Amino acid sequence: RSKLNARINRIEPSMTIGISAKAKDLCAAGLDVLSFSAGEPDFDTPDNIKIAAIKATVDGFTKYTAAGGINELRDAVVEKEKRRNGLDYKRENICISVGAKHALFNIAAVMLEEGDEIIIPAPYWVTYEAIAKYVGAKPVIIETKEENGFIPTHEDWEKAITPNTKMILINNPSNPTGATYEKSDLEFIAKLAEKHDLWIISDEIYEDIVFDGYNPVSIATLSDYAYERTLVVNGISKTYSMTGWRIGYTCGDSEVVAAMIKLQSQSTSNPTSIAQMAALEALRGPQDSVEKMRTKFEERRNFIVNALNSIDGITCFNPKGAFYVFPNISAFFGREYEGKKITGSMKFAELLLEHALIAVVPGIAFGDDRFMRFSFATSLENLKEGVERLKKFVEKIK
Ligand code: PLP
């Protein structure tokens, strides 16, 4: 008998986490590496939130809680979804999980059967594909085009549907491209889902990191069907710079939510008690830090998109959300850096780390080899220095 089961061999470790770890190791070894690979804001968690966690600890709020989260936090999510998106939920529609990633995993675990198809537009956050495969479902990938803003066309969506399709996944704004959906796109998807009796997962984790006045609507608001059949996934990691606290949530169908809570009750049990209290403060406390961080992100986005587009051979889509740019580097493929052939995004990223000491994530990690993901969740100074290093590196490509 083999040591590991077949299921675990269906998935690869997260490349983003792997590259960030490698960059950290090189830094620890004394090299001046600049990392643009992280999927997390560089800001500190706001003080009011930290204090709430300290208070919870000192007050002894350190025991098991209900598996699906404390009622106050579920209610705070209800209030937040009403306030932010105009969605009407009750406590029974909310499950608190150990991050949005855990929420997505649990949705897949309780809803997808072996062979069910889930439609995922590419470039995509690779975890979607991994989770689908792990539970035995089939990810059906829609390729998108840069010139369409990395959003599938209506025809693309229609063509991806088969009798086995159970779910559609949308991520708005998107990691890794920063692509954003117009309301009309979402209306189309909502109608299509209704026509084919499909469920929708709407990953809205970057909803507050948006630029140029873009204000995402949740697909769940667009029809009665969409409200009933959408599982809205969100969390506090990105908006409040709380990636390490591990709190995320799902809003939607109460039976799905109950099944997720049942699974949590037999696996993780509750999300960390004191992190739940911190999340409660994040959602109910002062919100001014959110806008402060957003403004910084927009300033950085403006800089990096211009800077990258000014480098010969690189073109960069201007994202309206999230904190990544996804420049096209395919013009360098087939050429050489110091005699080493650039075969694709992986090789490009490897050479970049080795010779320019900058860490990025190759596009292949997101299902499109022509690109690299460059996170601007770092200071403007680092971005400026990074662009200089990238420019010098690219100039040496023959
Ligand atoms: N969804 C997307 C698109 C993400 O990029 C991430 C984090 O990188 C998550 C969900 C997961 O967030 P968390 O598990 O920290 O709540």
From TrEMBL:
Pfam families listed in its UniProt record? Aminotran_1_2
* Aminotransferase class I/classII large domain span: 32-390
UniProt keyword annotation of Transferase present: yes
Question: Which EC numbers characterise this protein's activity in its record?
Answer: 2.6.1.-
GO MF term set: pyridoxal phosphate binding; transaminase activity
Q: Which SUPFAM superfamilies match?
A: PLP-dependent transferases
Q: Does the keyword Transferase apply?
A: yes
Q: Which family does it belong to?
A: Belongs to the class-I pyridoxal-phosphate-dependent aminotransferase family.
Any idea what this protein is called? Aminotransferase
Taxonomic placement: Bacteria, Pseudomonadati, Campylobacterota, Desulfurellia, Desulfurellales
